[in-house]
Design brief:
Blueprint: E1 3-7, E2 10-13, E3 18-25, E4 33-39, E5 46-51, E6 57-59, E7 67-72, E8 77-82, E9 91-98, E10 102-104, E11 108-113
Parallel strand pairs: 2-11
Antiparallel strand pairs: 1-3, 3-8, 4-5, 4-9, 5-6, 7-8, 9-10, 9-11
């Protein structure tokens, strides 16, 4: 059974930091491209950052320079370090694993107050 379990969300003031984690099981983590997506109320889900199995990273323009995605293949876990948070970063953040199939976590709420 495939499981992606996010943690680390919460309420933070603007300018603060959070670190999201996504622990996975049931997949060959080291060969999957891992990503973080977010969905704000009334908006479509958007890609925030991704990291390939080789470590190549991509970021949405809005978070470049503030967020860092990383992966630990030994722990089957992907992380999203979020710094200089802004109110517009408020959303539910979802972990994604992609190879042939697409797997999603249940999401974790991030709320940034002004």
């Amino acid at each position: 059974q495939v499981q992606l379990v996010e943690s680390g969300g919460g309420l933070v003031q603007a300018g603060g930091s959070l670190r999201l984690s996504c622990a996975t099981s049931g997949i060959a983590f080291n060969i999957h491209t891992m990503g973080w997506y977010r969905q704000a109320p009334g908006k479509e889900r958007e890609l925030v950052a991704s990291i390939s199995r080789g470590g190549t990273t991509t970021y949405a323009y809005s978070v470049k320079g503030r967020f860092t995605i990383s992966r630990d293949n030994a722990k089957n876990t992907v992380y999203l370090e979020m710094n200089s948070l802004k109110p517009e970063d408020t959303a539910v953040y979802y972990c994604n694993a992609q190879l042939i199939s697409n797997y999603w976590g249940q999401g974790t709420q991030v709320t940034v107050s002004s």
